[in-house]
Design brief:
With 493 residues, the protein is of the alpha+beta class. The chain has twelve helices and 17 strands. It has helices at residues 85-102, 139-142, 151-154, 199-213, 262-273, 283-290, 304-319, 363-368, 371-383, 387-399, 470-477, 480-483, and strands at 10-13, 39-47, 57-58, 72-78, 109-112, 118-121, 127-134, 174-181, 186-192, 254-260, 328-336, 354-362, 413-418, 437-440, 449-454, 462-468, 486-487. InterPro entries: CAT-like_dom_sf, Sec_Metabolite_Acyltrans. One of its GO terms (molecular function) is acyltransferase activity, transferring groups other than amino-acyl groups.
């Protein structure tokens, strides 16, 4: 086990309970007991362990559109730690206090200035840390092979459920919850304001907290907030009444995490990159050619992830039985702009540096064509999304500012968020073992919302969290062409 810190944090314990006694509380002393059986037994307000000297951080043209989005909700299941629960809570709180000192933006609040600019005030206002227990639930209740995600349970693994990011004017910009299950397994969940962080920054902070907890030094972050330079564009909210989400958060959905093995993804990639008439080339031969730097055809190669997304686009469109043949389908993919800008900005840039790359095709076009064609469409859209496209999108937003229209108004959109490249397993060992699985809360979920996670094995496998209406999900599960690529992760067998 790695060495773990044991310093005293700056916290305000809820008067009802202290973290040290939380695991010994009777049921009557619990702060919150929802139907899931996940019970909050202590709530602390945690401040950075050193005063911030950071000036106000102005929300950028990539931050401001996110004010209408829910806070990001992501977390990790871990094996049972070999230490008492009271010590675990104390350890997590003390390391969190130090992590907030390293990332003071997350301990601040949003403030609207007289000129209507919205800034992050790094005022050390602090965050909430909740300790919860689930004495009737074990890891097997959450990670069920070949089944829907039990959303009635997972929603209570996170605080601030469905809080809209504009509320960061009045509420913490981040909140944290550790939930201890009956079998000793632990879930660590983070909720973070989406106008303050994108997925890259979210997982940078998760890594920072884990590194401090296990006694390592975290990587420094870039707080310069110069993504597009200075902008005079503002969003105005008269009377301080913030925006609502742009989709129906209560529409019925089924949610599944589909696992695609490294072998399955290699097969899809080989098909996507196969030349017309090249059916005799098997995946192994193609793979050697595609990665040969002397091979001119290796340039413009369709990636593994693009190939997987194309398969999903085809299958979900088939499963949406009510779409007319001439309806336009849209595949939206979150694009990290950090490395696409010229000059590139730091990979450690802390804030939102994302845009949405859009690819369209009609239902009949997708029905007539194969994986190679659909993957080629996605590849072309993403290849064209360079510095010029990013700056044009930013200029268009500045000319007509508004919140990002998340959702699926016409029932034909797929929105792929998160990334299989995020360090969800790598770098997030808090000192007692590698995480077992990633799960998210109910934030920003609607028909066609999908999130990519790396496979736990780190071998190139990918997990895709898929949200669809019940009838569409049922049709997708009956689609043999799609399901032939889906398997169960080895750690769930």
């Amino acid at each position: 086990m790695a060495q773990m810190i044991s310093t005293m944090p700056m916290v305000d314990a809820t008067p009802a309970v202290s973290a040290i006694m939380a695991s010994k509380l009777p049921q009557s002393a619990c702060l919150d007991t929802p139907a899931s059986g996940i019970t909050v037994v202590s709530r602390q307000h945690v401040r950075p362990d050193a005063a911030s000297a950071m000036a106000d951080l102005t929300l950028s043209v990539s931050d401001l559109p996110m004010l209408s989005c829910h806070y990001i909700q992501k977390g990790l299941f871990f094996p049972a730690p070999d230490l008492p629960m009271s010590s675990l809570v104390s350890l997590l709180v003390s390391s969190l206090s130090r992590a907030l000192a390293a990332v003071p933006a997350l301990a601040g609040r949003l403030v609207t200035l007289p000129d209507d600019r919205i800034v992050i005030r790094c005022n050390d206002a602090g965050v909430d840390f909740l300790h919860a227990v689930a004495p009737g639930l074990s890891l097997d209740d959450f990670l069920v092979p070949d089944a829907d995600v039990p959303t009635k349970l997972t929603k209570d693994l996170f605080p601030m459920d469905r809080t809209v990011s504009y509320e960061g004017h009045r509420r913490p910009l981040t909140s944290f919850q550790v939930t201890v299950l009956r079998d000793g397994a632990v879930f660590i969940g983070i909720v973070a304001n989406h106008a303050v962080v994108d997925g890259t920054s979210f997982w940078h902070f998760f890594n920072t907290w884990a590194a401090i907890c296990r006694g390592d030094s975290p990587r420094p972050l870039d707080f310069r907030r110069n993504f597009f330079g200075d902008s005079t564009a503002v969003l105005r909210f008269p009377g301080g009444v913030g925006p609502a989400v742009t989709f129906d958060a209560d529409a019925p959905l089924r949610e599944r995490v589909f696992h695609f093995s490294a072998d399955a993804i290699r097969e899809m990639k080989a098909i996507a990159n196969r030349r017309p008439g090249g059916g005799a080339h098997d995946a192994e031969v193609y793979g050697k050619m595609a990665h040969d730097p002397k091979n001119p055809e290796s340039r413009g190669e369709i990636s593994s992830f693009q190939s997987l997304c194309a398969q999903i686009w085809l299958a979900v469109t088939r499963a949406r039985k009510r779409l007319a043949p001439d309806a336009t389908t849209t595949f939206r993919m979150a694009v990290n702009c950090r490395h696409r800008l010229l000059p590139a900005i730091s990979p450690a840039y802390f804030g939102n540096a994302i845009q949405s790359a859009v690819t369209t095709a009609t239902v009949s076009e997708l029905a007539r064509h194969d994986l190679r064609w659909a993957a080629g469409k996605l590849n072309a859209s993403l290849a064209a999304y360079g510095d010029g496209a990013i700056r044009r999108a930013a200029a268009a937003w500045q000319a007509k500012p508004g919140c990002f229209p998340l959702g699926n108004p016409d029932g034909s959109v797929i929105t792929m968020g998160s990334s299989n490249r995020f360090p969800m397993y790598e770098g997030n060992d808090f000192g007692w073992g590698r995480a077992l699985a990633v799960r998210s809360g109910r934030a920003n979920k609607f028909d066609g919302k999908m999130s990519a996670f790396p496979g736990r094995a780190g071998d190139g496998s990918v997990d895709i969290e898929v949200c669809l209406p019940p009838e569409t999900m049922a049709a997708l599960l009956r689609d043999a062409e799609f399901m032939q690529y889906v398997s169960c992760p080895s750690h769930l067998l």
